Structure formats: C-alpha cells, structure tokens
Write the structure tokens for this entry.
Amino acid sequence: MSAPARSQLEELGLSATCAEVLHHLWDYLDEQITPAGAERLRAHIASCKQCQQYEDYQECFLRAVAGLRQELGAPESLRARLAERLKGLSAQELAAVEAALEPLEKLLP
C-alpha cells in the first residue's frame, strides 16, 4: 500500500486490515474466499467496531436484496449480472450505491 493511501486510511480511522475487509467482505459473506483469508477477516472484524458495523450493514443489504429477489421473482440471470457489476465497482461507487439503497433498510423487519 502506498504512503498516500495509508495516510488516507489513517485519516478515516481505518487500518490496512480495514481496507482488506472493505475489499473482500462480499466474497467473505458469500464464502468465496480462502479459509486463511476468511479467518484473517473474521479475526479483524471481531476486534474492529467499524468493520463489525460495516459487516452488519452489508449482511442487512444482502438479506434485503435476497428478500426482494424472492418477492419479485427476479431471474437468476439478472442476479448473476448484478453480482458481476457490483464486483467491479470502486469503493466510491459502492458508497453511492449504499447511500441510494438506504431507504430499503426501512422495509426490513
């Protein structure tokens, strides 16, 4: 990680391990990560309140999407295309998507 990137993380109160969580969380939640990688993320998340909150939010988001998919009967091909497009988004783009989806949280029980 370059020095400017490290200093930007520090300004946000995040560590390099937090950046790893941000980058790999969806793979972790989908169990698409190596066992060693999963253990490393699990250990960090257990000790980092910010990452715990981020994991909780992402799990909530995934449950909402899954619920809508079941409710609306979205075809599997749409799900696959959406997942592929989300993987290619930058952190800034993901933040914009999350902000746009915040109203969905109110729909969850």
User: Anything to note?
Assistant: The chain has one domain: 3-105.
